[in-house]
Each structure stands twice: as structure tokens, then as C-alpha cells.
Amino acid sequence: MWGYFFGGNAKQKKELPKKAIVELREHISTLNKKSAFLETQVQEQDAIARKNVTSNKNLAKMALKKKKKLEADILKIENQVESLETQLNAIESANLNLETMKAMKQGAKAMKQMHGDFNVDKVDQTMDDIREQVELSEEISDAISRPLGNDLVDEDELDEELAALQQEELDNKMTDTKQAVKPPAEPVKSQLPDAPTGKVQEEEEDEDEKALRELQAEMGM
């Protein structure tokens, strides 16, 4: 790994951060596995010491000694892992900054290419040209929209004609209103029928008497 930091061609230097990150992660993983294995041995030696603490003190003492040695090795490995992780974080951060700068550089290059020969003065000139053409277009549109020759109409004359039409309409409405209003009709005198005369009553009585006599004759009375 260290050969990448102190030598190599341009391609190797370009790939250096990525390779360094990969190797550091692999080495940290190896150390963690080694630490886990030593931790298992520590537990085994602790069990041996506890088992022989009264029956075989020499064996128990030897187990404790191995346990202390294993714990010291584990501590060294943990310190190494901590150092490697610190270095890994620093390289990853530096590599991220490098990639960010590359992206920003590419972005600046793209913007420069898009802008080309543009500058503020040219942009202002272009905007002035656009505004000038818009104004010209509006003037042309107004000129085309104006009525020609005999199509010109006097607004005052139109107002007078409109007022005359309104007055005529008002007069017609007033005339219709007067015709609709009629004087009330005179009440019709009711005529009562003449009272019947005495002669008519006598004729009616004679007819009744005659009918009565005919009925009596039919019945043999």
C-alpha cells in the first residue's frame, strides 16, 4: 500500500485514493477478526483459571498470565484499528473533496463553453435590439389597424344620431301608454220586466179550470 504514496506512475497516483481506501478497510477487517479470536482465547484462559483456582494453583496462575498477555495484544490491535480508521476517514474526506473539486471544475468549464463570447455588454445590446424590434412591430400593427379614407367616422355625428334614436324610442313608448289608457264605460241601466196584467192572470186561471174539468170528465165525476 505504501508504495502508492511514495512512487508509481501518473495512473497509479490517480487511482491511489481508491486503492488506499480499499486496502485500509481490508486491513481493519483483518484486525477486527484477529481481535475477536483473541477475545475467545481470553475467555478460555479465564475459565481455566477459575476451574483450577483451588485444585491447581500453578495451572490457574499460568492461565491468568496468558490471559493478561492476550488482553494486551487485544489492546494493541484496538489502537491499530483506531489509527487506521482515523486515516481511512481522512482519506475518504480528502477523496470526496477531490471529486467535488473535479465536478466543480467540469461545471465551470461547461458554463464557460456555453457562454462562449458572451459578456454583459453584448447581452445588453441584444436586449436593446429585441426591445427595438418589439416597438417597431407594435407601430406596424397600429398602422395596419387604422381605417382608410371613407371609413373614417365622425364620433360627434354618431352621438347625435344615437340621441335622436333614443328620443324617438321614448316618444313611441309615451304614445303607446296614452292609447292604452281609456275612460271608464258608463254603467248600463238594468230594466226590470213589466208586471203581469190582470188579464193574463185570468187567462191562466181559465186554462186551469178547463184542464180540471176535462180530468173530472175522464174520471166520470
UniProtKB/TrEMBL annotation:
Basic and acidic residues bias (residue ranges): 210-221
Pfam families: Snf7
Cellular component GO terms, alphabetical: cytoplasmic side of plasma membrane; ESCRT III complex; multivesicular body
Region (Disordered): 167-221
Protein's cellular compartments: Endosome
Lineage: superkingdom: Eukaryota
Keyword Signal: no
Broad class of where this protein is predominantly found: other
Single Gene Ontology BP annotation: vesicle budding from membrane
Transmembrane segments: none
Protein family according to the UniProt entry: Belongs to the SNF7 family.
PANTHER family assigned: CHARGED MULTIVESICULAR BODY PROTEIN, GH13992P
Record-given protein name: Vacuolar-sorting protein SNF7
Taxonomic source organism: Ogataea haglerorum
